[in-house]
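Sanity check

After download, print the first record. It should look like this:
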Amino acid sequence: DKYGREWIVAPNQITNCVATPDNSRNIIEVHYIKKMAPVRINYLNKSFEELAKPVIRNMQVGEFFDASENRRFRDPNGQSWSLYESKPNKFTVSEDPKLNTLTLIYDVVKTDLIITFKTNTGVELKEAEKYSVPVNSNFTPEIPPEFVDQNGLVWVSSKSNQTVVNIHEEEEIFCDLVYDEKVSLVRTQFINEEGEKISDDYEDYRQIGSEFSIQLDDYFKDVNGKVWRLTNIERDRFIVSEDENQNLTVIRYASLLAPIRI
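Expected structure tokens:
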């Protein structure tokens, strides 16, 4: 036909006609059907690995095969692929089956996964990381168990963080990783000049990498009502360490004496 497609006469479909003086009745109808040939279609990735078993399709001889109709393909594992190229680039079905092999080469469909690092209140701790990941797949992000931010503060991964992200659509996907403060024990001792404790230690937990400082009045009254005079502070300001032994402040006091007249 005018499109280059081939047709053959359909069996037993020719109408018999006996000639008569009436020309309007002298009509012979011939019915045609498509002339078909098998076409083998191969599905490969860019490494020429087979994505699915070849498909044999019966197509009309002379028909042009439009590879764009196979722009997307999903393999038996559910992975989505996008057409990269077809070989040959232009394909017309031949009567000879040996010439009817079409190879479709696909690249995996990917989308952007944005991983953010935030506190449980939504404060961003460091620059987000961007990954290009296959659609219809599960992605396991590399979750740092802990990290130090630009201010030197140490953060530890929350137990609530996702260990697997399901990539089910082509739109940009966000995965928010939550981090908690990593803390260490900070201790303050109150002693007299003989090294004896005059009050219970003060203990608190502070974020590792943060600055700890203490300010005290010059005088201190213990639980017994005795007044002491501040004489020395060892390490009144320091950066909190993971080693609790490094997070110790020692405050020394002397008895506050007053003259007594007898």
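If your output differs, re-run the checksum step. Summary of this record's structure: Residues 42 and 103 are 5 Å apart (CA to CA).
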